[in-house]
Amino acid sequence: MRILLTGSSGWLGSGLEPRLKALGHEIIGLDPVASARTQIVGSIADRDLVLKTVRENRIEAIIHSGALHKPNIEHYENGVFVATNVQGTLNLLDAAVACGVQRFVFTSTTSLMISQTIRAGFEGGARKAAWLTEEMSPEPRNIYGVTKLSAEHLCRFYHIEHGLPVVVLRTARFFPEADDMAHAIEQSDANTKANELLFRRLTVEDAAAAHVAALEKAPRLGFDTFIISAPTPFRPQDCAELIADAPSVVARYFPNYPRLYVRKGWTMFSSIDRVYDSSRARERLGFVCKTSFADVLAALEAEA
After folding, report:
1. Is residue 217 within 8 Å of residue 167, measured between CB atoms?
2. What pLDDT is stored for residue 75 in this prediction?
3. Which domain of life is it from (predicted)?
4. Residue in 196, 210, 183, 205 with CA at minimum distance from that of residue 63
5. Could you give the C-alpha distances from 97 to 82, 223, 291, in angstroms and in order?
6. Do 64 and 107 touch, CB atoms closer than 8 A?
7. Which residues are within 8 A (CB) of 169 and not within 5 positions of it... i.e. 6 or more apart?
8. What ranges do the domains of the chain cover?
9. Phi-psi region of 63 (alpha: psi -120 to 50; beta: other; left: phi over 0)
10. CATH number of the domain located at residue range(s) 2-302 in this protein
11. Rounded distance, CA 176 to CA 185, Å?
12. What pTM was computed for the model?
């Protein structure tokens, strides 16, 4: 297929573009930042550019991973977020319908699912970790989440109105940078990322693989939304204890983790405030992340 990949110069683009090419697809990269993976340097907020790109390249599928992200909040006005994340998505959807694009994959974020209440550790009025599935009604806490949720609504509307097959992937954290609250976290960056694989992280390789799966399944699914995160060992009944004493819960599932963490000089989060349940992706998309917390422990064991 001839695929338009937005955000081709970004971190996800670096994992996705070669994977798609290896499968025999022809990739046209569109990004404001020039790179070897980007054929067209420009913004998705440029409506004429988007339509021209889709039409002249006879695009058959769009993977829309380009966006302004949470770290950009400090540097851009709200209107720029709307122009890029909402109007940009609308431009791509309109071009897809006008040019007969056969499938559309939208990279969304689990971040839009986290309200201020959930972040404070309260769920249903009680102090416990939030168990998050695609069935919840999100209440985004910042402009990034608001614009990504608005873009999701546009994707659903264009499927209903025009029959465009669209798959929305709410990806958990896979960015390589340190957490934007790293100054308040006691663990090293590697330690933090390992911990997060229990409940809110995946590798960029798994993120890319999920997009390939979504691209393949989009016509059959019609429209669907999936949380994409490393499989969690936890269950909903763990949520109260996760917020109160996360290390005890982790030790119950992984009895060898305390020994391995002590040897590495690592520690577990004292409290976990949310768990992303990716079981819907397994059941309906047929996708499961390859890398999990168990793989981290196996690597630590092998270091001996």
Report:
1. yes
2. 81
3. Bacteria
4. 210
5. 21, 15, 36
6. yes
7. 105, 106, 107, 108, 210, 211, 214, 225, 226, 228
8. 2-302
9. beta
10. 3.40.50.720
11. 16
12. 0.94
